[in-house]
Amino acid sequence: MPKSLVVVESPAKAKTINKYLGSDYIVKACMGHIKDLPKSKMGVDEEKDFEPHYVIIRGKNDIVKDLKSAAEKADCIYLAPDPDREGEAIAFHLAEELENGKPVYRVILNEITKAEVLHAFANPTEIDEKKVQAQQTRRILDRLVGYKLSPLLWQKVKRGLSAGRVQSIALRLICDREREILSFVPEEYWTLTAFLEAAQPPVFPAKLARKNGEKISVGDQQTADQILSDLKDAEYSVKNIEKKQRKRHAPAPYITSKLQQEASRKFRWPVKKVMMVAQELYEGIELGSEGAVGLITYMRTDSVRVSDLAVGEARSFIPNEYGQEFLPQSPNFFKNKKSVQDAHEAIRPTSVFRTPDSVKQYLSRDEQKLYALIWNRFVGSQMRSAEFDETIVTVAAKDYEFEASGQVMTFPGYLKVYQEETVDPEAEEVAARIPPLEPGQNLRLDRLEPKQNFTQPPSRFTEAALVKELEDKEIGRPSTYAAIISVIQNRNYVIKEDNRFKPVDLGLLISDLLVRNFDELMDFKYTAHLEEELDEIEEGTKESLEVLNEFYGDFTRDLKKAYDRIENIKATGLATDVKCPQCGNAMVKRWGKFGAFLACTNEECKYTQNPDQKPEDNLGGAVGSESEHVCLKCGKTLVVKVGRYGKFLACSGYPDCKFTAKLSQSSTASSVEVPGEKCPQCGSGLVEKQGRFGPFVACSSYPDCKYIKPKMLDVKCPDDAGALIEKRTRGRKIFYGCANYPECKFALWNKPVPQECPACHAPFMLEKYRKDSPAFLECSNKDCKFQLEPEPVQS
């Protein structure tokens, strides 16, 4: 009997939904996107209104084939990927592949509970074409930028580099902050604290605030000493006492960016991990006899809106758990920003009655920590404000005024459940130390303490701080923050030091190059404006083609100017303090096939050197200097060069002669020729070289003769008595085979050792390994199980 096919993104989500729908439905997972633009080419036709060409993602063919087979047997198809732009695009591509004349429905699941799932399947919708257009427009924009900018970086910086539209903005934020730190000049300032005593103890501190009624700042020791001199015989008295009642209102429930920031601060989690754990809580957790249940609502949202049902649950829970005094007279409601899409509720528990303690036994440690954070924030959002008594005491001394201020909590309110930030401990301490005082009351000076301070540079971005900065500048959206941060790290443009982002030299260079040549693309406001236009496409107030045409016209003009401007530049580099030892010009740091190197800025000078070594060292002289050896091919002098594997000797006749040889690390007197051995193919001498996989022996006439001497083992082939040699597969994995291949195809993965088996007298043993253990020997005869364990290491 035909059944309905339901397609979701992940197996966990499929398992939870399948439990609620029953046997009339087959639920399968597509494992995310099934189609994307091809990796090998642009995939966007600029001449045909930027028409995208999507292909099945490599590795997804079997999944698509399985889904098609299930769709052919089904009576209808329900598509239930996540309820955002990416999910809508996944549903669109699934419909393209699976439709086949069958009715196709779109199901939106903001939370995965039985009631929500049954309601959503009873009220299916259609695929939102506008939302799909917004996602595809973003994808096309990113592809245009990546495929047009990357060749510029390849040509002028280093092959293999890439640039992204939003990721480059994030990189710029990190690089700009680094330059602020490097250019920061500390400024001196002083604080003066009077420790005063009234008729009753204790002594309390008051800080210098004003002189002659105007705010005062103390910039140096001379000024501080002058104030100390002025106050030498001063009398101190209470000028004014101000008491206020302060309220701290409950915060709104989490949106995606706030959850990422809070979890990053409190748990030191990467943003990517926050989203992974939240996804697990959303898709469903096995709760014993209750089965799989989604514990939180959809975790990609920028709205603080909460359903009336959820508010009602919280208002019935709070008085029973914490007392009637913690419940406000009316529900707390929160306003969204103007730019908010408001497609989904805020992140909240699907049921407030599933407390963190009641589900703790079913959750992993990470799941429990994040669920408690979300639950506490939501419950706190519907509780009364916290209340504080604040006291500000003004103390007069001659022309100067000191202030002592502190606050004491009188009612915890929402802080009973959730604390976004702790109450200022210093303010509480000062408040506790202020004794009963009256205006006009004289005070005794215990001591007057001056303290020298210096302003501090801005801090590097943590992941939480970077997300906040992107959010404040309206760059990116909730679903993109984790991807943005992952990309700039994966491309090795930034590193983390003490959990904070620091740009590497390559990242600084790329950011500078893009800012100089693509000022609009790298402008924060312009990028934010593009995000607004994507929202307008989703809302149906703007056309995709209009946005693409406007962007592409400006972008191609900038791209042409950039190529024209730097066409005659040999390469770009990062400025250094190093001078060229050959011509005296400045050297810059550049990147090549084998990593970073220093190069002379004089185009006529070809001098280069390793950035980590000095012009002269003990490895055979300066890079580029002549050696005492001569070329075995043409007789010219060999010179010292540096490559991927360090220094080597190369013919000074390059490029006419491409002879190279190994350079001895112990001295300049290097024996580059293998004595007494000739190439069996051309008769030239054999030389020892250093390659990617270590030393090897090859013909000195390379590249005319490409003979490489095989590594012979002192073991005979058991099939034809030929020698066994070391070989490599196309994937560079080592194996051992007969030297008489292809006549003899004997081969082994384990290294043969010329040692007879004591048990069966087989001619050789095999070297094998166990996990976390030294190598051991095993008989090469499969019928003999003899093993020889390694000798214990003597202490």
Give a structural overview.
Helices cover 31% and strands 25% of the residues. It has 795 residues and is α+β, with helices and mostly antiparallel strands. The chain folds into 6 domains: 124 residues, Rossmann fold; 156 residues, Topoisomerase I, domain 2 (Orthogonal Bundle); 123 residues, Topoisomerase I, domain 3 (Distorted Sandwich), CATH 2.70.20; 126 residues, Topoisomerase I, domain 4 (Orthogonal Bundle), CATH 1.10.290; 126 residues, no CATH class; 78 residues, no CATH class. The strands form 11 sheets. Strands 9-10-16-15-12-17 form a 6-stranded antiparallel β-barrel. Strands 2-1-7-8 form a 4-stranded parallel sheet, with helices on both faces. A 4-stranded antiparallel sheet has the order 20-21-22-23. Strand 4 and strand 5 form a beta hairpin. Helix 5 packs parallel to helix 18, helix 8 packs antiparallel against helix 14 and helix 9 packs across helix 12. The radius of gyration is 36 Å and the shape is globular. It starts with a strand and ends in a 7-residue tail after the last strand. The C terminus is likely disordered.
CATH H-level name of the largest domain... which superfamily?
A: Topoisomerase I, domain 2
Would you report the number of β strands?
Answer: 38
Strand order in the sheet with the most strands: 9-10-16-15-12-17
Euclidean distance between termini CA atoms: 73 Å
Record keyword descriptors for this entry.
795 residues, Topoisomerase I, domain 2, Topoisomerase I, domain 3, 18 helices, 25% strand, globular, disordered C terminus
